[in-house]
Each structure stands twice: as structure tokens, then as C-alpha cells.
Design brief:
Strand order of the largest sheet: 2-9-8-6-10
Strand content: 15-25%
Largest sheet: 5 strands, mixed
Number of domains: 1
Radius of gyration: 16 Å
Number of helices: 8
Order of helices and strands: HHHHEHEHEEHEHEEEEEEE
Length: about 230
């Protein structure tokens, strides 16, 4: 497909519209105006993000607007994903036992900004790690001074750029772990995005490791829906 020239402010506005159209304000207990106020402080920072990392065909985008699970639960955001030009909603795999998602939190090395929304910058889908052992891929990413994506950030990638989730170029999310050998991942199943997991020592030819350069704060915690 043909991608338009990158403009940070315009791209930020597009991502806000995407989340609004998908019902994120209501999920966050906010009306659209309050949701816009929540994420609005990030717009100036998005406008300053350089376009150098903009190559969606190669799985690279300059930034993602991420809403945390505190404001929008994973169980509600994952079904709002879909494949590019697809109609079937994404889903959480049954292999997550009851209560498992709550235990898949950011690792100690994955430092998240304060607030309920932030920018994840210099994002790579990570297909260079297809066929690599996930544990080894995470070590390489750390050695480059980059960070693995969390579950919420992976959902944001598919939400804002569904074109990047394609056959044989799916991705693991090593920024969220549960204290065991499982590594969450998003891939295609039943013609829809699926959030599942694989073992950290098992390579897969179609599953890479997504990463990013930095996380940028600026938004505040979601105001109460009951506030004046």
C-alpha cells in the first residue's frame, strides 16, 4: 500500500481518532472530551518525533499512542483489534488461565512512564528475530539499549497499524512477563489477531520480537468520570 508522508502531529491526531472511534473513552470511564484532555499533553511531543523511523513496510513506525491497562483493560482492548481489512475481532487465547493476564506485568527492566497514556517511540516489529530463541532475542535488544514491548504496547501496534501484523511477521512481547518461562505474543489465528504466549526457549520461524527506543510521558492519570 502507499503510505502518506509522515507528519507527527497529524499522525497523533489520527491515532487519537482511532482510539476514540474504538470506544477507548468509554472504556476509560471518560467522555471523548475528557479522553482528549488525557492524551492531549502528548501531542507536542509527537509532533517533534523525527520521521527517520517511518517505514511501515519494513515494520518500523515513529511512535504509538499507548493507553495503559489501568484505563483500558486488555480483555476489552484486544477484541477491538482486527487484521488490515479484516472484520473478525482479535481475542485473548484460552491458554491464559483465569487471572493470568493480571500477572503478566512490565518487567523490572521495562520502565513505564507515569500516567494512563504515553508515547512509545521508534518502534520495530522485530522480524529479524524470527527463528531466534526469544530469550536470546531479548538479550540482543537489551544490548542495543532498546526495550521490548509490553502486552498493551503490542495491542497498540496492531490497533494503530494493523497492516504490520501479517503472516510470518508476527511478534513476541518480552516487556511483559509473569515470573515463569512464558513470553506473550500476538499472531494471526482464525483470521484475526490473537494474544497468546510461547516458551522463552522455543524459537518460531514466524514470530519475532518487537522493540522500541524510548517511552515518553506527558499525559496524566485519567480524571474521574464523576468529576465536575
Amino acid at each position: 500500500m502507499t503510505w502518506p508522508p509522515f507528519d507527527g502531529a497529524a499522525e497523533f491526531d489520527r491515532q487519537v481518532r482511532t482510539l476514540t472511534d474504538l470506544g477507548y473513552p468509554a472504556m476509560s470511564g471518560l467522555d471523548p472530551a475528557r479522553f482528549a484532555a488525557l492524551v492531549g499533553p502528548l501531542r507536542e511531543r509527537a509532533a517533534a518525533v523525527p520521521a527517520g523511523a517511518y517505514d511501515p513496510e519494513a515494520g518500523r513506525v515513529p511512535f504509538l499512542l499507548v493507553v495503559t491497562r489501568d484505563a483500558a483493560p486488555i480483555e476489552e482492548t484486544m477484541p477491538r483489534t482486527a487484521l488490515y481489512r479484516g472484520r473478525l475481532p482479535g481475542f485473548v487465547d484460552h491458554s491464559f488461565e483465569p487471572g493470568a493476564l493480571e500477572r503478566f506485568t512490565a518487567t523490572p527492566a521495562t520502565v513505564l512512564p507515569d500516567g494512563d497514556a504515553y508515547l512509545l517511540c521508534d518502534v520495530e516489529r522485530g522480524e529479524e528475530f524470527c527463528g531466534a530463541v526469544p530469550r536470546a532475542a531479548m538479550d540482543v535488544i537489551a544490548g542495543r539499549g532498546r526495550t521490548c514491548l509490553t502486552i498493551e504496547e503490542g495491542i497498540a501496534l496492531v490497533t494503530h497499524f494493523p497492516q504490520l501484523l501479517v503472516t510470518n511477521k508476527c511478534f513476541s512481547l518480552g516487556g511483559s512477563r509473569s515470573g515463569d518461562r512464558r513470553v506473550p505474543a500476538i499472531w494471526i489465528s482464525r483470521r484475526a489477531p490473537k494474544l497468546g504466549w510461547w516458551w522463552e526457549g522455543n524459537p518460531h520461524t514466524w514470530l519475532g520480537m518487537a522493540s522500541a527506543g524510548t517511552r515518553t510521558a506527558g499525559a496524566v492519570a485519567a480524571p474521574s468520570a464523576m468529576a465536575d
